[in-house]
Automatic annotation (TrEMBL):
CDD domains (alphabetical): LMWP_ArsC
A matching Pfam family: LMWPc
Protein name per Swiss-Prot or TrEMBL: Low molecular weight phosphatase family protein
Nucleotide-binding recorded as keyword: no
GO biological process terms on file: response to arsenic-containing substance
Phosphotyrosine protein phosphatase I domain ranges (all copies): 1-135
Keywords from the named record: Arsenical resistance
Gene3D superfamilies: 3.40.50.2300
Listed PANTHER family: ARSENATE REDUCTASE (PTHR43428:SF1)
Length: 159
């Protein structure tokens, strides 16, 4: 299964999601991330957080949804602005769900406030990805509508 984590800038939340998923996923499952308007640069705090958690990010980069190496089976939007965007037509009838998470890179305040925002985003995405990966395989193959409902429910964890 190929999962696309989509955000507008592809620099923070989608990167964190891609890295967590690839770290936790079973063999044969793979995540990529992309943005509708990629910044072209990964967020340094997100990279540092992932490194501190022992999650590798080698080879990851900010990219456009028009430059995907594979067609995903599932698209997960992780930011509010990407939720309403129409995915590129070439993706076809791919399954979509929205797991909105506040952008920690937009938090201002003390260093502790910013660190808490990044940790909260990480923990929320980690919990959602773990819940997705814990779904019984038959759920993934059975009823597409039931699978979508499960994915949408997962998107409320930590909200």
């Amino acid at each position: 299964m190929n999962v696309l984590f989509l955000c507008t800038g592809n620099s923070c939340r989608s990167l964190i999601s891609e890295a967590i998923f690839n770290h936790l996923a079973p063999a044969g499952w793979h995540a990529i991330s992309a943005g509708s308007q990629p910044t072209g640069k990964l967020n340094e705090r997100a990279l540092a957080l992932l490194a501190a958690k022992g999650i590798p990010t080698d080879g990851y980069y900010s990219k456009s949804w028009e430059d995907l190496p594979v067609t995903p089976d599932l698209v997960v939007t992780v930011c509010a602005s990407a939720a309403g965007e129409t995915c590129p037509a070439y993706l076809g009838p791919v399954l979509r769900t929205h797991w909105g998470v506040d952008d920690p890179s937009h938090v201002s305040g003390t260093e502790a406030d910013i660190e808490r925002a990044f940790e909260h985003a990480y923990m929320t995405l980690h919990a959602r990805i773990a819940a997705f990966l814990a779904l019984p395989p038959e759920t993934l193959r059975a009823d597409r509508a039931a699978f979508k409902a499960e994915l949408d429910l997962i998107g409320t964890i930590g909200a």
